[in-house]
Amino acid sequence: MTIMVGQPLLSLRGIGKAFGKNAAVLEGVTLDVEKGEFLTLVGPSGCGKSTLLRLIAGLIAPSAGTLSFPAGRPEIAFVFQEPTLMPWATAAANARLALDLEGVKRGEAEARARAALQRVGLDGVAAYPRQLSGGMKMRVSIARAMAVRPQLLLMDEPFAALDEPSRQALNDDLLTLWREDGMTVVFVTHSLYESAYLSTRVAVMAPGRIAALLPQNPPAQRDESWRLTAEFAAAAGRISAALKGKP
Amino acid sequence: MKALRYSLPLALGLAVLLAWQIAVREARLPVYLLPAPSDIWAAFLADFPSLMASLFATLKVTAAAFLLALVLGVMLAVAFSQSRIVENALYPYAVVMQVTPVVAIAPLILIWVGYDRIELALVLIAFLVAFFPILSNTTLGLKSADHNLIDLFRLYGANRWQILWRLQLPGALPHILGAAKIAGGLALIGAVVAEFVAGSGTATGLAWRIIEAGNRLEIAKMFACLALLALLGIAIFALLSALEYALLRQWHESALEKQD
Q: What value of ipTM does the predicted structure carry?
């Protein structure tokens, strides 16, 4: 059996980004994102994680370097730290947003949005955002992303503002979606425990650059109990050491 | 508590009217100085048909000016939100239009439009008073769209009209409705000012009735006209508040308190 070493989904070469005349936020970032991996960008506030994610999404352009999708541009979805819902629209209408913009027929869009909401555990599709808790709003936001059937899901500290139980529940639900759909996830967080729990690879960032790339080997099926193992503690320890700049 | 909210001001109003009635009668004040509420009511009944016609005339001017201000204000604000060049070129003139006292422009407008088309002149003057709050608030509302949502719209391939129609305009709705409440009252003020400037013999609205009654020392009739103007203002405000509540109650924070 031959193992095909495919092209990376995303290739970054010497990416730099500066806003106006300010000092560069990113400098010389080189990184390949493989298809199907769960990559976490972890680092202190202001190190350029979110900027890197926005560059990948094409929301901003790099000042230097090249960014390419060697196998063609995948379907991309983005989840922000805030749920970023339209307050005047119901959960269903929010989840349908991308489909409405693309001109998908109303019936099909509604069915896909409803299915996406059910996958994240929401049935109350007629509710307005103000009637939902923080965790439920974030679920609507994830459903909105899943409704486009993304090949690349970009998430910018999506669970940072949630309480710990909601955060853990959403971590597990996200892993289920990732496994079921075989999509690629690039996930920004400042929590090294979250990065250790979720990812197959961790990019530890120092201000403006990637300081270390740490492959992870978490069990395929992981739950709460895995957080208590020595294996998890060791993974978190390695990320922590890299964050502190130790080899 | 809810019953008290309405009955308290109502009771206070009735008490004041009663005290007013008794005081005027006891002091034997002449009706051309301060008429009693009963005199005002009598004047209202005596001139009912002509007062209603005047009320309708003022209402027509106010409504036309308000709708014109709403449509043009929102349209210009949309143009501002789509083009920085248009905004930079026109906004200073909108401000000039706002800060120049409209009473000073009114005679010019009357001459230009002509006394034979007095209603159009009145509408234009009232429009000038009501226009700016709509323009200014709507512009602010359109610019206040969540930047992350705009990014998301762009990521999902939205064009600028989809962003305007699906994101900016719904988001600006609370601003537009808030401005409409202000503009509704201002349109009425503008209509009254315009009628005052136009003077007698041309306009037929309530403000002109006030001038006419004043010239004839019919003070009770003046009060009757004033009361009608106040009621008209309250009705406009109540109508626009109801519209605001109907459109925002599902989702906006401002409508939330009323439900709780």
A: 0.90
